[in-house]
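Structural prep section.
Before we set up the soaks we want a predicted structure of the protein with flavin-adenine dinucleotide in place, mainly to decide which crystallisation condition to try first. Input record follows.
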Amino acid sequence: MKEIFNLLILGGGASGLAAAVTAYEMNVKKIAILERLPRTGKKILATGNGRCNLSHQNISAPDYQGSYDVTGILENFGSAEAFFENLGLYCRTDEQGRIYPYSMSANAVLDALRLQCSGVAEFCNEQAVKLFCKNRIWHILTESGTEYLSRFVIFSAGGTVQPKFGTDGTAFRLLENLNIPVIQGRPILCPLLSDKKLLQSLKGLRVKGSVSLYYKNKLLKSETGEIQFTERTISGICIFNLSVLVKHQFSDYEISVNLFPELTHSELLLRLRKCRGERLGLPYEDMLSGLMQKPLARIILNKSGIRTNMSCVRASQSQFSRLAENCQNFRFPVLGTVKEQAQASAGGVAGDALDEHLQVKSHPGLYITGEAVDVHAPCGGYQLHWAWASGYTAGKAVAEQISAEKNL
Ligand SMILES: Cc1cc2nc3c(=O)[nH]c(=O)nc-3n(C[C@H](O)[C@H](O)[C@H](O)COP(=O)(O)OP(=O)(O)OC[C@H]3O[C@@H](n4cnc5c(N)ncnc54)[C@H](O)[C@@H]3O)c2cc1C
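Run finished without errors. Recording the tokens verbatim:
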């Protein structure tokens, strides 16, 4: 007779491993992970530029968007630091509140998870292609033609971006075939495509400032940080966080760059006049080089209708006013999101299909975790925090059900 597992975890990423560790620590026997890639946790190794920004010190429910209310799960999970300390991994927090493993190495995070579930079976190179329940036993068929049986299934197959890490959204078909409502995915936490002509001369520049996203000329959100320009994109963590809000027709969105967010318009005018006083007789381009990098000075002058080689002695009041306006509100059209570079996707299983333990209400015994739930958050450790918290919740709920059945 075929072996029946107590718990099969579909997807060996962040939330799947957190679920496995939790259930294993709570004494669940016969747990297995099915992973389509040759190894588990490949994406974890790439997070935080190889350092794994695993959580943030100020996390609360309003940081998360989507159709599932995460409040109860975050409260019950507590801190990611405590979760990892329990696995023997110590953390450190940087000046922006981001939490990393003490060694600043993502390998340490994956090791901590894998070392703790040494008794969990791993079946790699196994892509689940069908999922159904018969006589209270879940059946998972894989592309290799193998069938796995289990009493409980935790679906931790991630979102719809980053196929190189095993996540391309195809796993959602398994749920759709069970009529579980899935909200269509879209890339988030990614660079924004903009006008090549404007960006051409800015390629490679990194500047500090603030960026604001406008939809049909209405301000949606502003962020401060480093703004990076490439040939086709505007990027940086501040842009990644704004990309979450780009949901409709791209042409209705604009990014406004403010190079002097700490100054009011009149303070900037004063500063420009001071600069002119110190660089009298020089061309505008050189006058501005004391305040910003030359390629930026050139496009701002251009936009303000001022020749770069014109002497700044001849500057008029209205020219200075236009210049200040463009320094603080330089608009770039949004032409798209860069899916290939997205760190996550929005969308996933609809919140009202799940109970407080992430069990699918219409399919007892089936749980959903991580990015596969319609929950998303900004950069800074929030995504992974959700992965750990949701994996922990589902793993614990399965362990408690199994233990309750034993005591009957
Ligand atoms: C480059 C990069 C950097 C990031 N940096 C950070 C960061 O520093 N901090 C942060 O908070 N977040 C970060 N994120 C986001 C974070 O990694 C994800 O949100 C998180 O890993 C999601 O966890 P998950 O368990 O839902 O899915 P994943 O970790 O994506 O795991 C899903 C797993 O399921 C497997 N799978 C999929 N389909 C099947 C199938 N049919 N059968 C079997 N297996 C399947 C996949 O191969 C994969 O291993 C980053 C993401 C990327 C891409």
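Observations: The chain has a mean pLDDT of 95.
Flagged for discussion at group meeting.
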